Amino acid sequence: MPLHLAAGRRLLLLLAAVATSAAAAGAAAEANRSSSCTLLPDAEFVRAAFLNVSNFQPPLPGHRACRPVRRLHFPSRNLTGPVDWAELGNLSSLLTVDLSGNSLQGGIDASFWRAPSLRAVDVSRNNLNGVLRFDDVPSMRLAALNVSGNQFTSVVGLAGLTGLEFLDVSRNRVGAAPEGLQNLTKVRWLDLSCNGMAGRFPDDLPPLDGLVSVNISHNNFSGTVPAAAVRRFGQSAFFQAGNALQVIEDGAPSGGKKRNRAVVIALISAGAAVTAAALAFVAACVARGLARRRKKKKKRKDKDGKAAVWEDEEVVVGAVKVAAAAPVVVIERPLMELTLADLAAATSGFGRESQLAETGGRLGAAYRAVLPGDLHVVVRVVEGPMAGVGEDDDEAATAAGFRELARLRHPNILPLLGYCIAGKQKLLLFEYMEKGDLHRWLHELPVGSMDTEDIGIDTMEALEERKPAGDWPTRYRIILGIARGLAFLHQGWAGSGRPIVHGRLVPTNILLGDDMEPRISDFLHPSDETPEGDVYRFGTLVFELVTGQARWNDASTSWARGVIRNRKGLNLVDDRLLRGDAAGAPEAEKEMAECLQVGFLCTAGAPEKRPTMQQVVGLLKDIRPPAAPAGEPPVAGLMMQ
């Protein structure tokens, strides 16, 4: 079956395709908007659903629309009271719901989940409670769900949510791991933290090999966390996850010998089965957290009332106490005097409120901070080895390694701005990219996404006419920018001739600037991969950008190569492009087909048949003249293998 018709098509592509299909109707839809159109009762359903909710602005009485309600986006509107969720379940075309950051009360009626088109729901940071039920749902295609920061006590019926990819039930009162969670094989992002939840790791979780991010911290799990899981998800994912949970970490090589030792971080026998004291555990967890914040996060305004100041002598970073006086080096601002205390003040003591969602990076937890001089940065805790920096190096050697890494500067590479070495803990500073990563931009992840427009019924027509995410010139620019950045890395350290291999070139590691220029991140790791492996992954990125389809594997790549080999590449092109600005433009369609041919070359089965990234840059520049500044050698004689 063609990839773009496959049953497993991602939620986010479906959302974008539905939203843009109406926009493509353009003037024709406007001409048909008359008394002869089919009137829908959607507005009445919404009005009834929010009848008892304060501060909700309902549609005009008697208003009936020709267009169905597809999105209900009312985040942070001070909405207070209970929602009649059963009424929202009548919206047959409802795709996404964002009611986060309000004061909604009561439970969620199970009939709400029967809305047949529902793809994504974000009701985080409300006062919802009771049992979250999904049982008896006849047809469930939900792919993203965020109910964090509420007071739900249990989750029932998860086994039926087989299409779920994003699940966040953190900061609730769920006393036991939900039954059926282990059956959700498509879940990629999972957060169960801060519940006092009893369960067994990894038996009660989805398969670990399919997860990109997981967090079970501040719970009451038992079982064993292998060292591979700690390396993959970070120590913070298992912090205070249960007294009976054994967390094993690989010891770093010492004395010049390459050996591993298993270190038991936490192993205290539970002795008795977990009982109804789970709720009391949560209350104690919260109380301890508040006490710790009062003690550790002692922030005050300075005499001018301009900046927060950290008063404690120590800071907890990655579950380790370190001296707050450790200096922070901002490489391009050598006169800026900062310490770890300044980073702690700017991140609320490296608290959850400042922590960014994990998107597959190989470093540790990341926190957003605004430093003096309005410098917006991401502070990352280093976990594991880094290229050019030895784990056993002394502070001077480590600092020298960081400065060498900071010399890697290119418009399409995310630069290292600074660092902090506090005992055994290392922190890196990177530029904060407001636009987020390529995956979120291209697939319009609705839960927790940036640049999400607040949509109500009265602005639905504006949504329908919105320009689709990513016209062809923008996508081409991103493809070329990634190629240039990767070619720069493959040139290697200055004068060494040794290439820097990324090893994990995926959309979540491509960040976007305000000008939509891509920047490659997460390349500061030693890798056993080869440059040819990077070229292959770049080829799959080209396929993703041209087709608009996510999660490429060897099977889908092989299938796409067969289509391109048969000169039918246009059959793969994203419908959003063919219906957008490039609709009916032969030159644009030619460029898309030629970019797919570049992806074909890059994904050749034999590594020696793949072009170098420098050659790829030349090929891409020839596709869409005028070319950018010269410098790359001309490419000739490359044929599809």
Automatic annotation (TrEMBL):
- List, alphabetically, the SUPFAM superfamilies matched: L domain-like (SSF52058), Protein kinase-like (PK-like) (SSF56112)
Which InterPro entries does the protein's record reference?
A: Kinase-like_dom_sf, LRR_dom_sf, PRK1-6/SRF4-like, Prot_kinase_dom, Ser-Thr/Tyr_kinase_cat_dom, TAT_signal
- Span of the secretion signal? 1-29
Taking every annotated instance into account, which residue ranges of this chain make up the domain Protein kinase?
352-636
**Pfam families per the record?**
PK_Tyr_Ser-Thr (PF07714)
By its UniProt entry, which PROSITE patterns does this protein fall under? PROTEIN_KINASE_DOM, TAT
Residue intervals passing through the bilayer: 263-291
- What one GO molecular function would you report for this record? protein kinase activity
Keywords, alphabetical: Membrane, Signal, Transmembrane, Transmembrane helix
Protein's name according to its UniProt entry: Protein kinase domain-containing protein
